[in-house]
Amino acid sequence: MNKTVNPKDLTSEDDVGPLYAARKKVYPQSVSGTFRRIKWGLMA
User: Which of 31, 9, 5, 10 is nearest to 39 (CA)?
Assistant: First the structure.
């Protein structure tokens, strides 16, 4: 239980990838319809 561990034994050479995935870009989409026109009519 009190055995010392070498830190080199804990690191894996196989896990050399990034820790987080790249952020995906969000692109605006065109939306049309009756509700959309009513909403913009009330907002304007």
Answer: 31
Rounded distance between C-alpha atoms, residue 7 and residue 27, angstroms: 44
Helix, strand, coil fractions of the chain, as percent rounded to 5 = 30, 0, 70
> 24 vs 18, 19, 21, 27, 36, CA distance in Å?
15, 15, 9, 10, 27
pLDDT tens digit string along 2-23?
Answer: 888 887 777 666 667 788 889 9
Q: Taking the alpha carbons of 29, 33, 35, 36 in that order, is the dihedral positive or negative?
A: positive
Q: CA-to-CA distance for 39 and 31, rounded, in angstroms?
A: 12
